[in-house]
Amino acid sequence: MRIDVLSLFPEMFTHVFGSSILKHAQQSGLVTYQVVDFRDYANNKHRKVDDYPYGGGAGMVLRAQPFFDAVDDLVKEGQKRPRVVMLCPQGERYSQKKAEEFSKEEHLILLCGHYEGYDERVREYLVTDEVSIGDYVLTGGELGAMVIADSVTRLLPGVLGNEESAVTDSFSTGLLEHPHYTRPAEYRGMRVPDILLSGHHKNIEEWRSRESLKRTWERRPDLLERKNLSEKEQKWIDEFTRKQ
């Protein structure tokens, strides 16, 4: 997979793309990252990429030309048109489902906005997706682009050591993940649940499924509104409700 980022501050990505899982994924040839300063595509000697808004108003607006020219340069002749993702507060709220969708693409281009936003023609004629990582405003789209790159990269085949890790993560199953424990079995009087020490794999899996459902019911009940519950899961929820 190839992930290109158009940013005014490419230096922000150096340590993110050069560390941990993202670094290993790139070294293994599973993904390629490129961060482009879109000032390089400005068609004026001062490399200016913003201008005053038509109609007046506060702030500056990012011009369309640098984005269009940069994307044209990044898409080689004959190549399938990539997903061009605009990071902006007005976009669709980012989710694990969207990350899984992006991970099936060959090429993503992420646009990092600043100032009062983008010339509307970028949104209408260049962008395929608009994404927001939450209902708050940041100084630019760089942090959102990092979030997308990380969440997509870890879903690529071969990136994680255990291929089941991404599948069982919170949100991938539609539920939050079950609790985890490791050695020692007892610490300061706090014990690991006996069932996890039993070696009975079927019972352990059932406990994990129940705890995953319970944690979701307690912390993110909104996720259950979109899930088709099995008869057993509904029975567990009835038990949780009675014990409230």
From TrEMBL:
It catalyses: guanosine(37) in tRNA + S-adenosyl-L-methionine = N(1)-methylguanosine(37) in tRNA + S-adenosyl-L-homocysteine + H(+). One of its GO terms (biological process) is tRNA N1-guanine methylation. Its EC number is 2.1.1.228. It is an enzyme of class 2 (transferase). InterPro entries: Alpha/beta_knot_MTases, tRNA_m1G_MeTrfase_C_sf, tRNA_m1G_MeTrfase_TrmD, tRNA_m1G_MTases_N, tRNA_MeTrfase_TRMD/TRM10. The keyword Glycoprotein does not apply. GO terms for molecular function: tRNA (guanine(37)-N1)-methyltransferase activity. Keywords: Cytoplasm, Methyltransferase, S-adenosyl-L-methionine, Transferase, tRNA processing. It is found in: Cytoplasm. Residues 1-225 form the tRNA methyltransferase TRMD/TRM10-type domain. S-adenosyl-L-methionine binds at residues 113, 133-138. GO terms for cellular component: cytosol. Coiled coil: none annotated. The keyword Methyltransferase applies. It comes from the Bacteria. Homodimer. Specifically methylates guanosine-37 in various tRNAs. Belongs to the RNA methyltransferase TrmD family. This is tRNA (guanine-N(1)-)-methyltransferase. It comes from Halalkalibacter okhensis.
